[in-house]
Amino acid sequence: MNEAETSSAIVCAECGAPGSEGQASCPRCGGLFEIRHRLPEIEPAALRERFAERRTGRGPLATSGVWRYRELVAPALPREAIVTQGEGNTFLYESEALGRWAGLDGPVWLKHEGHNPTGSFKDRGMTVGVSRARELGAAAVACASTGNTSSSLASYAARADMKALVFVPAGKVSAGKLAQTIALGARVLEVEGSFDTAMRLVLAATERLPIYLLNSVNPWRIEGQKTIVFELLEQLDWQPPDAIALPAGNLGNTSAFGKALDEAVRLGLIDRLPRLLPVQAAGAAPFHRLVASDAERLEPEPRPETVATAIRIGEPRSWRKARRAVERTAGRTTAVSDEQILEAKAAIDAAGIGCEPASAASLAGVRALVRSGELAPDARVVCVLTGHLLKDPDAITRYHCGPEPGPHANPPVRLPAEPEAVAAWLAKELG
């Protein structure tokens, strides 16, 4: 790449004021920052071919589903600063059965980000954020988290030999995610209150101390998360779907997806914008209420509650950028109940795919939008699954083996250790 392809700047997404590394928000208007690149001047076909050729290349940058798109992510970042674990390259499932379940006439596609190294989409943003921190010489990185960000930060920080500090809401992070974070070496600070409390505390800490913040308010994280969209478009041979549904918590992905689609159109990689369909849990749906009421400002949910812990966030920081992404794509928001989320999760699990509860919100939202008439049954839809099935084993145990099991529960069967008893049960099971 030449110099013209490597120009990037940090600017306020609201007022356009220039920003600097380490600022969490614009001192002029309070908006979040974003990275604006000088996009490569190259024919769309040639750029598509470049991406395709890298898939068959060797070396860590070629095998990463983030750094394969490096011109659109962090073109000026020195290669020696990059910390990668081959993130991305996640599978795009096609399912007729789940399409029918959602009320669609044809299949639904599921982009499974739980196939990333630490089991969630967060790795795509973290490889970029930690690499930038490494370039800057940061000794410590920090985040607030409901679990997935913390485990991803712990992993990438350890690979970069950095100290990782994680703020989590006490008693509100799944055992699987907390265990993963601890095992990977991060120092965990459990705070009383919600994720939003933890977020306020980590912001205060990073303002006072030389710690590099790596929540999605960091614009470099968003650049990595954009590659979910680039990759799924490439997997669809650059034929955009009609809609992309995704779980919505702190809204980093919603804003990242909007930015990716805008850049893809400007580069000529696609010729139209899919609609973005952010889906929130009913117990933590301030963004849906904002869009549905066409209010000027987001009204936080003071006590967010949902079984989908990854999106149990009452004061999402990226709501302005996310709102623009929804409006730009003529998208829709919706909120679904915990019962709807768990029903969708059971369907995804039964299809042999599996996901954590928050991921299933995307499919539950599609079903709700089809039923309400806001999404046509003949639409081509991609649902993004954000986390691995084993991210929240407690939710699985409660659904299948708890005192009030779900309607599709599949509890273990306890039998006497006698061949006759086993044979009799198997004969009945097999008909």
Description:
The protein has 431 residues and is α/β, with parallel strands linked by helices. It has a domain at 92-119 and 221-401: 3-Layer(aba) Sandwich (Rossmann fold). The chain is built from 16 helices and twelve strands. It has helices at 44-55, 60-63, 96-102, 122-136, 148-159, 175-183, 195-208, 219-225, 227-235, 252-266, 286-293, 319-328, 338-350, 357-371, 393-401, 419-429, and strands at residues 8-12, 33-37, 92-95, 108-112, 140-144, 163-169, 187-191, 212-213, 243-247, 275-281, 334-336, 381-385. The strands form three sheets. It has a six-stranded mixed β-sheet, with helices on both faces. The chain has a four-stranded parallel β-sheet with strand order 7-6-5-8, sandwiched between helices. A two-stranded antiparallel sheet has the order 1-2. Helix 4 packs across helix 5. The model has no long low-confidence stretch (mean pLDDT 96).
Secondary structure layout:
Blueprint: E1 8-12, E2 33-37, H1 44-55, H2 60-63, E3 92-95, H3 96-102, E4 108-112, H4 122-136, E5 140-144, H5 148-159, E6 163-169, H6 175-183, E7 187-191, H7 195-208, E8 212-213, H8 219-225, H9 227-235, E9 243-247, H10 252-266, E10 275-281, H11 286-293, H12 319-328, E11 334-336, H13 338-350, H14 357-371, E12 381-385, H15 393-401, H16 419-429
Low-confidence sequence ranges: none
**How many angstroms separate the termini?**
64 Å
Strand content: 5-15%
Seen as an oligomer or otherwise, the chain set is single chain
What percent of the residues sit in helical stretches (DSSP H or I)?
25-40%
SSE class: alpha/beta
Backbone shape: globular
In DSSP terms, counting alpha (H) and pi (I) runs of 4 or more, how many helices?
A: 16
Secondary-structure element sequence? Answer: EEHHEHEHEHEHEHEHHEHEHHEHHEHH
Please compute the radius of gyration using only Cα atoms: 21 Å
Query: What is the average per-residue confidence, as pLDDT, rounded to a whole number?
Result: 96
Main beta sheet: 6 strands, mixed
User: In the CATH hierarchy, what is the class of the domain at 92-119 and 221-401?
Assistant: Alpha Beta
